[in-house]
Please model this.
Amino acid sequence: MTKNEIRTLMKNKRKQVSDNLRAEYNKRIHDRLTSSEYFNECGIIFSYVSFGSEADTDNIIKTAFRMKKRVFIPKVEGREMNFYEICGFDGLIRSKYGILEPAGNLNPYISSQNDNVKKLMLLPGLAFDKAGNRIGYGAGYYDRYMAKFPEHEWIKIGLAFNFQIMENLPAADNDIRTDYIITDETLIKCR
Model:
């Protein structure tokens, strides 16, 4: 299957999940992530704000706030994406894609190699494989963004429903791979 065929297949599969089952899956993903050492040991979380049928991040972000972690979310700016720190959901606005983003002129995240703070990057995706390859929505924002930083800037965790795990996804050399994938059924170590 091509990447676009996989995108279409997974979007359709996600849409078919009932609200009750989706809520159950999301709770399992939340609990598995927030009880992990990766989440508990990190001081900074970079998270997408879930949209539509994606694995939910709202409760994950709220848990991070309760645990006094710093939270950064993305904002698309032309062909690029940057992450900005937020202190809550107030003040977020909908982008042209309908996704919540930080508003106003903020300072983007700049790498601090010497801060010794563990950082976690939560990655959205339509499909993942056990080697850590992911198929996103096709715009390449995350790959371009993360390519600007050292490979070990973050622990990279993909969030997905278990049916989004596939065998041997097509991947290019410049595609950023996840270190782990957390689903409603398991935690997969990719490297």
About this structure: The first helix runs from residue 3 to 15. The radius of gyration is 16 Å. The helical segments are 3-15, 19-34, 37-41, 58-66, 141-146.
